[in-house]
Amino acid sequence: MSLLIPLSLLFVFAAYKLYQQPRYKLPPGPHPWPIIGNIFSIKTQPFRCFDEWSRCYGPIISVWFGSSLNIIVSTAELAEKVLKENDHQLANRHRNMTATQLTKGGKDLIWADYGPHHIKVRKVCTLELFSPKSLEAQRPIREDEVAAMIQSIFKDCTRGNGLLVRDYLREVTFNIITRMVLGKRFASLGREMDEQTSEFRAVAAAEQMGVVYLGLAEYIPWLRWMFWLKKKEINKHEARRDQQIRPLMEEHKLAGKGSPGPVNAVKYFLNALLTQQDKYDLSDDTVNGLIWDMVNAGKDTSLISVEWAIAELIRNPDVQLKAHEELDRVIGSDRAMNELDLPNLPYLQCIAKEALRLHPPTPLLLPHKANADVKIGRYDIPRGSIVLVNVWAICRDPAIWPDPLAFRPERFTEQDVDVKGHDFRLLPFGAGRRVCPGAQLGINLVNSMLGHLLHHFNWSLPRGTKPGEIDMMEEHPGLVAYMRTPLQAVPSPRLPANLYKQNKKDM
Ligand code: HEM
């Protein structure tokens, strides 16, 4: 009797596979085991593992996570087929069970399937948060926070052993995003936190860890009952995350009835959304979901790029020197830079691009899902398959990039390569219908943080550490790829002391 259940499950799986085989010509890939598929053969950095498999099986491969089929493409031509030629059929999202519950089945933007809801919500975000006018209006927030970061690093830079660069970057991006989205700053490094701040930070940190992830059980329909064992945990998190936003929404609604608010106040995203809620017919769940989307998508991606860039600059001192020369020539040493200087700093922009090429923060983009049967080349992608684009592999493809592993920003002065989804060789923000709507904001953040860090400091390693010892492997806890070992570096000031003090702006 005890064997009966596993045997019948095996039979169902085998029957399913047999049923699939003749109908579809699937891309090749590693041999899947019954029930588990390939899931236990995937190494810690899946994008590296998929790259290795692509070398063996070809640029489009099938990988089974339990009974879920993943199609992974690893060349620029195939990325174009997925994100441009067949974009319409491949723009749904694969949501795990936690994301499904937290977003009430995709009522937000990131986890929404492609369709009228996605189109509407993207339009709202594009107009209200990411339009050139909104980005420009919020520039003082970004500059204020970047100046605060420089001040804190200056304060701490005498520590002989250097400092953990990520701590400062995490602080600045978190403050920028929360101020842009919620109009609020949730405390800062080394300062006492009030209860609301520590609760908000705890909820945001739990979001990053995926709250609850069931591993293999996510991909095996008959193991999904395990989700119910974790239901209490997810319900609790859902209530905590709602509790952060709902009172702000209520506050706004009450205030809105009386006064229009200060005329010159910088409009933050929650405010803008609630003002337009009726016009766009947005439910409270959608507003709540969008706020968390922005916090989640915005807080890690840019800091990841800057940390990698600083590591590369320490390993490549000639590049750092060239960046310092450009900054000294364009800005000089009697003022700090600001975002308006960026167009005059082409080499700095090339450094940021090169960091995004070698270390794309989301190496497999976000998981797309086929909403219809699609043919790519000789192969079928059945409806419901998860589709991943290995942009990490494309960005290191020697057929496209000469000397691909070298950190050489000059490659972008020799040829101009678009980074925002028009050139399929370089896709850190994706392309097509699901391209990152925050791409320009992300680029501004990376360029601005990097520019300030370089203008104000010379970066080196703690005494006794050699550049070759920096751990250049990734940690891939969810969708993003951090440096596996947080970078410890020594900043040495290179400008007059008065330029390290943040001038508080009234906003
Ligand atoms: C260097 C910084 C950033 C990088 C590399 C990046 C990268 C990406 C990528 C690869 C995607 C998925 C594309 C796909 O599915 O094909 C994405 C989606 C998204 N990003 Fe970004 N991003 C960055 C910054 C930001 C910022 C600052 C925000 C907002 C504050 C943001 C908001 C979003 C949203 C809302 C989506 C979902 C779009 C959709 O599903 O339609 N991103 N991003």
List keywords for this structure.
heme, 507 residues, alpha+beta, five-stranded mixed β-sheet, Cyt_P450_E_grp-I, three-stranded antiparallel β-sheet, oxidoreductase activity, acting on paired donors, with incorporation or reduction of molecular oxygen, binds protoporphyrin IX containing FE, Cytochrome p450, globular, signal
SS-based class: alpha+beta
**Quick one: how many beta strands?**
12
| Rounded average pLDDT | 89
**What Rg do the Cα atoms give?**
24 Å
What is the total number of structural domains? Answer: 1
Give every kind of bound small molecule, once each.
Answer: protoporphyrin IX containing FE
Superfamily at the CATH H level? Cytochrome P450
How far is it from the N-terminal to the C-terminal residue, by CA? Answer: 71 Å
The first-level CATH class name: Mainly Alpha
- Biggest sheet architecture: 5 strands, mixed
| Helix and strand pattern | HHEEHEHHHHEHHHHHHHHEEEEHHHEEEE
Give the helix tally: 18
| Architecture (CATH level 2) name | Orthogonal Bundle
**Helical content class:** 40-55%
Runs in which pLDDT lies below 50 for 5 or more consecutive residues are: 258-264
Report the principal-axis shape: globular
Strands in their spatial order, largest beta sheet: 1-2-8-5-3
Strand residue content: 5-15%
CATH topology descriptor: Cytochrome p450
Subcellular location: Membrane
Keywords: Heme, Iron, Membrane, Metal-binding, Monooxygenase, Oxidoreductase, Signal, Transmembrane, Transmembrane helix
Family: Belongs to the cytochrome P450 family.
Cofactor: heme
